[in-house]
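Give me structure tokens for this 131-residue protein.
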Amino acid sequence: MATSLDFWNRAMSEPFEWGKNDCALWVSRYIEELTGFDPASNYRGSYTTKLGAFRILRKSGGLEGLCESVMVDFPLGDDVGVAQINGVNLCGIRNGDKLALKGDCGLLIIPFEGFLRGWSIEDRKTQHEIE
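Here you go.
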């Protein structure tokens, strides 16, 4: 099973692409790899542009609202979540004291200072490993 560092290393060579490999879908793919559950399954293939993504976000109450709606079965925690960087909300993956965020400029790794809203995937990861 891949670790967050393995996933980050792969992400360095994968370009940002709206609707395929943007900040939310990138984190969702990580969650799916670890747990078998894809929180973004209802959104994959439904947009291909920034405008399309923003339409979905507006209908969902922003990135936090969208994430809350798809992560209802996960306990609050700090494995994955929504962080605000320079006034912009982005989904990210935490590993220790580092946070990785996928943006249109590539993979950004910064010191972890907390999420606006975060979730733990450890319980679901363990369950998936057993299956």
